[in-house]
What we know:
Elements: E1 6-11, H1 19-32, E2 36-40, H2 43-49, E3 52-55, H3 82-94, E4 99-104, H4 106-118, E5 123-128, H5 144-165, E6 167-173, H6 180-189, E7 193-195, H7 203-215, E8 221-226, H8 234-244, E9 249-254, H9 266-284, E10 290-295, E11 298-303, H10 304-310, H11 317-325
Parallel strand pairs: 1-2, 1-4, 4-5, 5-10, 6-8, 6-9, 7-8
Antiparallel strand pairs: 2-3, 10-11
Helix pairs in contact: 1-9, 2-3, 5-6, 6-11, 7-8
Amino acid sequence: MQKLSKIAVLTSGGDAPGMNPCIRAVVRTAIYNGLQVTGVRQGYQGLIDNNMYEMNNRSVSNILNLGGTILKTARCLPFRTDEGMEIAYNNLRARGIDGLVVIGGDGTFTGALRFSKKYPDIAVMGVPGTIDNDLYGSTYTLGFDTATNTVIEAIDKIRDTADAHDRLFFIEVMGRDSGAIALRAGISCGAEAILLPEKETAIEELIVSLKAGQYNKKSSSIVIVAEGDKHGGVYDIAKAVEKEVKNYDIKVTILGHLQRGGSPSSFDRILGSRLGYAAVNALIAGKTQQMVGLQANNIVSTDLEEALNQHEFKLEDDLMQMMEILSI
Ligand code: F6P
């Protein structure tokens, strides 16, 4: 095993609160261990464009509280091609880089694994960073906690006005194919219904439960719709319900990208620090093609191949069961 001398770090895909604390931990852990660190701007695009800079301990001062990512991020199509990967490889080798930490979601990891199989002399370690919480191998991903709290704050505000006007609100939240944000935010805000990609709810069933709520003297109702829900979007659902549920003024809110921003929560700052620290130590220990993650409050490594193949992040059974019972 050749001794590692210089690593690069990048963030890729959708930004997530907690990425900055993770970058900080990567840089400082690496320097503490005598490694040089290069920051790559705009994810894989920066590898191709040779858009990189040398980092030191001061490059990551005062960033723990910042949302987004100081390295910037991108969704990079050219990195999916052999030509793009070759340019990236040559740029890394020319800088003497022999280890790479990638912070992102499954698209990021897919790119990292392909790259690492093609060019195994550059060790690769993944850190799960996405608000969607949809990666196998880590109970929580960076940014999920902050995003969920942001959603909760927004829905609490909507509840105030919903209640004041006796209205029914349909609120769409992010998560791509995952209902993790929707489920937790829904339970935390007492949503009357939560529509998830993981569990199909027939519109007729939703209508029955909203009518039951009216009958039980509920003044306002909130239905959370995960963006990956299979019914074709929050407006279509609201329209279908409007035809059947009378005496309710119906409104639709799509929370959108505000869910991705904001200062990371305590949980995400600690998680980012732990994962960044662990990723560098794993590279130093000679590991590659893995991701570090949190399981039962321990940091563990999972092969990227396994993480990507499993690609099933199960929502908690008890939360799924209680979501209907607690909002009656
Ligand atoms: O993966 C994070 C995420 O915010 C998803 O929840 C959402 O589907 C997607 O990214 C939005 O991507 P973009 O910012 O490129 O529109």
